[in-house]
Amino acid sequence: MSATRPLHLAAEIGGPPRYDAASHIALARLAEQGALDFVTLGDSFARPGPDALAVLARVAPATTRIGLVPTVTTTHTEPFHISSAVATLDWVSGGRAGWHADVSTTEAEARLFGRRGAASAAALWQEAGEVADAGARLWDSWEDDAEIRDVATGRFVDRDKLHYVDFEGSTFSVRGPAIVPRPPQGRPVTVIDGTSGPAREPAARYADVVYVRATSPEQASALRDDVRRIAAAHGRDPDTLRVLVALTVDLGDAETATEPGLESGPQLAGRGTYFRGGPVDLAELITRWHRGGAVDGFHLTPITPERDLERIVNGTVALLQHRSLFRTFHPGGTLREHLGLTRPANRYALAPTSGGTA
After folding, report:
1. SS3 label, residue 160
2. Residue among 182, 187, 181, 146 nearest 353 (CA)
3. Cβ atoms within 10 Å of 37's Cβ, excluding its own
4. What values do phi and psi take at 307, rounded to 5?
5. C-beta of residue 310 within 8 angstroms of C-beta of residue 30
6. What's the confidence (pLDDT) of residue 156?
7. For labeling, which of 56, 171, 237, 285 is most exposed (least CB within 10 Å)?
8. Which of 338, 341, 320 lies closest to 329 in space, CA to CA?
C-alpha cells in the first residue's frame, strides 16, 4: 500500500446502555466534526439496550455527513427484514448507511427466539455471508429508475425493472423483490470483523470494510494481505476492500514515551486490541502503521465514549490533520464516497425480463 493512500478512521459511539437520543447524537456530531468516515453502534442479543439500527435512524436526520453503521446480528434474524431495514437507513440518511454483520453463538440467545439451537461458528459465519449476499441481491432487485409515480396514469412502478432474486441459502431462501426501492448508495456498506478464522472468508468475499486485530504493523499487513488474497480468489478486485485495524482505546493516561526499539509506536496491551496512552501516542501509532503501508485505517472503540472520543477528535485527529495525513472535510455526501468506493452497478439492470407496469 502506498503511503499516500487515504487514511480511513471510524469510531464506536456505544458504551453503557443509553435510552436518550441526545447522547448518541452528540457523539455522532463530534465524530462528524473530525471528518471521520463513519461511526458504529454495537449491538447483540446478549446485552440490554435499544436497537442499534433504530437508534442510528434517529441520529441520521441530526447529522449531515458522517457514515452510520449499526451492528446487525444475522443469526435468528430474517434476511429480508435486515435488507429492508438497512436500505431504509440509507434512505433516511441520504446515502450514509452501512451495517456491521455479526453472529449469535450462545444457546441462551437462541432460546430468546425459540426457533433453533446454537450452531458452530463455521455454520453461523457461512450463514452470515449468505445473508450479506442475499441482501445485496435484494438491494439490486429494484433498478434505479423502477419507480414511475405517474399519478395521471396510476402507474407506480415499471414491473420490467423489478427482479426476483430467488436466493437459496443453507438455512433460508428469499424470492424477492425487495419492498424498499434501491438505496441511494446502490448497496449500503457491509462491514465484517474478519479476525477470526470462520469469519475471514465471508468478510473477504462480501464485505466492503473488514476489521482485523493485530499487535504490530507486520501482523496487520499480513492479515490485510490474506484478506485481499481471499477476495481475489473469489473474483473480487482487492482494491475495493478497506481493511481497518480495530483498537479499543483508553486515552485517560498522560502521554508516554515510546519504548526504545519499538517500531510500531506505543505498546499495545493485552491481546493487541487495547491501546492505553494519550492522544499524541495514538496519533504516533496511526502515523507509523499507515505510513508503513500496513493498514487502510483504524476503527477505534473508546473505553469512555464521552471522554475519549473528544480526545480522539480534538487531539489525535487534529494532529493527523496538521500532518496532512487525514482530511479536514468529508469528500462527498455518501459513506461510499468517504471510503473511496464506487456505487455498484445493478447486477439485474441488463438482464432480460418480462412483464408490464403496475
Report:
1. helix
2. 146
3. 30
4. -80, -55
5. yes
6. 78
7. 237
8. 338
CA 5/CA 291 separation, integer angstroms: 9
Q: What angle do CA 104, 37, 325 make, to 5 degrees?
A: 130
Q: What pLDDT, on the 0 to 100 scale, is given for residue 148? A: 83
Running DSSP on this structure, what letter comes out for residue 5?
A: S
Residue 297's DSSP bridge partners are 8, 244
- CA R_g for the chain: 21
Instruction: Name 356's Cβ contacts closer than 8 Å, sequence gap at least 6.
Output: 159, 160
Of 188, 177, 83, the C-alpha closest to 130 is: 83
- Helices in the chain by DSSP H: which ranges? 21-33, 52-59, 79-92, 107-113, 121-140, 197-206, 217-233, 279-291, 305-311, 318-322, 335-339
| CA separation for the pair 287, 265 (Å, rounded) | 9
The residues, any chain, with a CB within 8 Å of residue 287's CB and separated by 6 or more, are 265, 320, 323, 325
Distance CA 239, CA 251 (A): 32
Q: What is the C-alpha separation between 177 and 163, in angstroms, rounded?
A: 6
Residue with cell 455527513: 65
pTM of the model: 0.91
pLDDT tens, residue by residue, 141-187: 999 999 887 777 767 788 889 999 999 999 999 999 999 999 999 99
pLDDT per position as a tens digit, 29-62: 999 999 999 999 999 998 888 999 999 999 999 9
Other beta carbons within 10 angstroms of residue 198's beta carbon come to 18
Question: Under a CB-based contact definition with an 8 Å cutoff, are residues 335 and 95 in contact?
Answer: yes
Average pLDDT in the chain: 90
Judge whether 224 and 207 are in contact, CB under 8 Å: no
